[in-house]
Write a structure and sequence with these properties.
Layout (H helix, E strand, L loop, with lengths): L3 H9 L11 H53 L1 H20 L7 H14 L3 E7 L3 E2 L3 E12 L1 H12 L5 E10 L10 E12 L12 E2 L3
Antiparallel strand pairs: 1-3, 1-6, 2-3, 3-5, 4-5
Length: 215
């Protein structure tokens, strides 16, 4: 068996200009070395950068899959969403019809007064306040003070709730009437009756006059 020194001596004596004269082992070693060098350079400059791109592509693929799954569920429920939207639009239209126009507000206020009369209440104050405009509707608060008993108050509130237009009652305050004119047992109720109307083009905030002592 040849010694390592023999191989080294033979390696130092190789003719670089006549590769064909090299021994088989030297020729194979040179080819392996060059191949390994080319492979290392190719890996460093071409493969490693592509690995980063591959990782980014894999992350993008995961995101796209998740987006696709979400959109697929939305598409699967599109029919139900459309039905819900149509139902909401129908309900909104029905509610909108319960909001009077600007010209219908006086009639609504008269309906509230007629409901008060039908309930047997006496009016001490009916004072519309400036309206508060919102996105597509306006709130018209009205200060109302009436006198009567609990049963009459109940009939009045029930009657207002039964009106075809939306009217809300808030800030309710009930107290006994203290006077010397036979008012024993009578009660005074102060409320804010809010009416609503939908806004039309050219609307502006108005300040209606107050009405006191109407009977």
């Amino acid at each position: 068996m040849r010694k390592l020194g023999d191989y080294l001596d033979e390696l130092r004596g190789l003719d670089q200009h006549n590769i064909g004269s090299w021994p088989t082992w030297a020729y194979g070693f040179a080819i392996g070395l060059v191949s390994a060098t080319i492979l290392a350079i190719g890996t460093w400059y071409f493969v490693l950068p592509k690995q980063d791109e591959l990782a980014r592509a894999e992350r993008k693929e995961t995101e796209l899959k998740q987006t696709f799954e979400v959109k697929q569920r939305l598409v699967a429920n599109l029919g139900a969403y459309r039905e819900q939207l149509a139902a909401m639009q129908e309900q909104f239209g029905a509610l909108l019809q319960q909001l009077p126009s600007k010209t219908e507000v006086p009639r609504l206020l008269n309906d509230i007064s007629q409901t008060r009369l039908a309930s047997g209440l006496e009016e001490e104050l009916f004072k519309p306040r400036p309206e508060d405009q919102r996105d597509f509707y306006a709130v018209l608060p009205n200060d109302l003070i009436v006198t009567g008993d609990y049963h009459e108050f109940g009939r009045f509130v029930s009657g207002v709730a039964a009106l075809s237009r939306i009217v809300t009652i808030e800030d309710v305050k009930i107290e006994p009437v203290n006077d010397n004119n036979g008012g024993a047992g009578k009660l005074r109720m102060s409320v804010t009756a809010n009416t609503f109307r939908y806004l039309e083009g050219g609307d502006s905030v108005t300040k209606p006059a107050s009405r006191k002592g109407a009977r």
